[in-house]
Amino acid sequence: MNVSLEQELVQHCAATLLGVKAGSLVSVSNRENPGLNGQLSRYNVQLRSCGLVFVPLCQCKTRTLVFVCRPEDLSRRLDEPEARAILEQAGYPLGRGVGALVAHLRRRLMEQHGFPHEIGLFLDYPTEDVVGFLRDGGAGSKFCGYWKVYGDVDAAKARFASFDACRDCLIRQLQAGKTISTLLNAA
After folding, report:
1. Phi and psi torsions of 68, nearest 5°
2. pLDDT 10s digits, 146-174
3. Which H, E and C letters describe the chain, residue by residue?
4. Cα(15)–Cα(1) distance, rounded to whole angstroms?
5. Angle between helices 153-175 and 3-17 (to 10 degrees)
6. How many Cβ atoms sit within 10 Å of the Cβ of residue 126?
7. What distance in Å separates the CA atoms of residue 16 and residue 166, rounded to the nearest whole number?
8. Cβ contact 93:141 at 8 Å
9. Which of 90, 31, 24 shows the shortest CA–CA distance to 57?
10. C-alpha to C-alpha distance for 164 and 82, rounded to whole angstroms
């Protein structure tokens, strides 16, 4: 097991690993994680029954952007009317399933020199915050934590605290010698 990859996944994706969030992203070093695609495939086999999928979204010479998601939760999230309207406007193939939406996101990432801002929907950010960022380009937010908050600051702070608690819990477990696969399959 690659300890570096486990640490990166826990640091950036704990809330998704524990089912609090539909999707998370982590950028991992290719040098520190040789055989990354094979390891992601093993996670997909080991953790699919837990409802998790690990997708390499894009790769450059030095880093790979990995999307960790819970497809059932993500599908419900992206099927909300406000989210559908944003995705439709950005040309996503609605009605073809979450896999097609993630594949379209992958293409958009590779075509652009930056993140397509609707990625916030895939990362389970509140729609009003995604809309605010799309509208204002990151300016004028009320608060900034895991994302820029344009809507309910108190609700966002509570979610941020729950994400931190997920991360801290899994970090303690890793430090005790557990692995992500062992922890999640035991749950």
Report:
1. -110, 125
2. 999 999 999 999 999 999 999 999 999 99
3. CCHHHHHHHHHHHHHHHCCCCCEEEEEEECCCCCCHHHHHHHHHHHHHHHCCEEEEEEECCCEEEEEEECHHHHHHHHCCHHHHHHHHHCCCCCCCCHHHHHHHHHHHHHHCCCCCCCHHHHCCCCHHHHHHHHHHCCCCCCEECCCEECCCHHHHHHHHHHHHHHHHHHHHHHHCCCCHHHHHHHC
4. 21
5. 140
6. 19
7. 9
8. no
9. 24
10. 27
Contact partners, residue 169, CB within 8 Å, separation at least 6: 14, 18
Rounded to 10°, the helix 71-78/81-89 angle is 80
Mean residue pLDDT of the chain comes to: 94
Radius of gyration of the chain (CA): 16
Q: Return the residue matching tokens 């995705």.
A: 87
